[in-house]
């Protein structure tokens, strides 16, 4: 990937920098952590969600990770074929009533991925002093609080626009 000369870029909007940085981090995670383990970012998100929250329906997964029905269905089918999740019919044979659960193999994959994250994140953190890390984490918490408020406002505006 070409590197941007940060001091030569005229655009200094925080949102743009955050999106660019997030895309770059995701690309690096895909390349160095997920792909070697046979995963994608979307697959990893689903495994982490199931690890943290327990069994979920596909609809709940769609809502929680903010992805499309098609993408989540594709990821669930892939993870199921790999033995990383299991599907359990909730009532009868209605395919729409299914619960998705992480398997022991899925938990092992999560733990392997966590070890890779820890290994690579330690290197990233070495570029910052402890004070810089403290400030960064404080700003990230504040940013997430701001994003929560932005999301609430966007949802309110979207509801209003749909009624019009």
Protein architecture, described:
The protein is mostly helical and 164 residues long. It has 2 domains: 11-127, Winged helix-like DNA-binding domain superfamily/Winged helix DNA-binding domain (Arc Repressor Mutant, subunit A); 129-164. Helix content is 68%, strand content 6%. The chain has 6 helices and 2 strands. Strands 1-2 form a two-stranded antiparallel ribbon. Helix 3 packs across helix 4. The chain is globular, with a radius of gyration of 19 Å.
Question: How would you describe this structure in keywords?
Answer:
about 160 residues, mainly alpha, Arc Repressor Mutant, subunit A, 2 domains, two-stranded antiparallel sheet, 6 helices
In CATH terms, what is the fold-level topology of the largest domain? Arc Repressor Mutant, subunit A
Q: How do the SSEs run, as a string of H and E?
A: HHHHEEHH
Percent range for β-strand residues: 5-15%
Give the full name of the CATH homologous superfamily of the largest domain: Winged helix-like DNA-binding domain superfamily/Winged helix DNA-binding domain
Computed structural class: mainly alpha
Record the strand order, biggest sheet: 1-2
Main sheet characteristics: 2 strands, antiparallel
Overall residue-averaged pLDDT value: 85
Low-confidence runs (pLDDT<50, min 5 residues)?
none
